[in-house]
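Question: what's this shape?

___
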Amino acid sequence: MKWSLRIGKLFGIPVYLHLTFLLLLLWIGIVSWQQEQSVRAGVEGVLFMAALFGCVVLHELGHALTARRYGIVTRDITLLPIGGVARLERMPEDPKQELWVALAGPAVNVVIAGVLYAFAGISPVVPDFSLTRGSFLDRMIMVNVVLVVFNLLPAFPMDGGRILRALLATRLEYTRATHLAAQVGQVMALLFLLVGLLTHNFFLGFIAFFVWIGAAQEASVVQMRHSLSGIPVRRAMVTTFQTLSPGDSLAKAIDATLAGTQRDFPVVDGPQLLGILLQKDLIAAIARRGPEITVSEVMQTDFEVVQPSEMLDGAFRRLSERRFSTAPVVSRGRLVGMITMDNIGEFIAISDALDKTKSLA
């Protein structure tokens, strides 16, 4: 994720801190200082927020390690002002697996709250379980309780929403279960927004926006994968395209871009596929170093390759997971086509139009 700083690794999973999180810590420190006019209060406010997000990291780690049991890799965990995000390569489509992965995060917070409560019970001081009063330990217990309750709300794509989908998917087709969970999530988003407006809570409004968009996107992606299942790549791939050589200048790539609609170019040396020149890399390189440098200096050498016989849903999933917009299609070591997110979308649109025509006939 852009504007993120790597702060370490946990169980082999990179952990990143989004720079906006530092702004949140600064804001918390200033607000805490203003309330009590004390540097100590400011420092305690920052430490409390850092501890809270430590619990969030452990929450996301619960998801990640449970997903690992099912062979699903977690690319990274990123701390954002609104919480943490564990970026899994894919979500399990087996309802039971998704259920356990979704439950693992809140379960971690239950364990943390239980351990802290047991420790608080040893203290001679009577606990005051509040988010705003009481000792540091008491507030941390309540924070974890709130994290459990909040994450279990059926607001897809939050944990509770994923639990709901997993339960629905045990009785319904996966796509239908996703749509129902997404609809419930969007209803929850509207409730968040309403409560946020009534209480003048900007943060709840922000969460409402996140939940609404996330639910719509998840439902859209699942619907797209369903539409692509059982269809081979060869039916949607582009077979008329231009290639570049590693020694070509970026000026030639500019000419090729302006001459047609192709955005990304395979880079070949004879029959051998060496890399791919993405439009975003081309533009960035021109702005930095000019059009005279060679394609080989800019091309991507780490890219996805698909087979013509591979199913479109699998190709789409791999491109989505790695956030690629294009992949060369290779058969027996020979470049035979290109598959892009754009032409996958066009294929779906045309297929839907043809289905409607058939239904009217």
In short: Residues 111 and 144 are 9 Å apart (CA to CA).
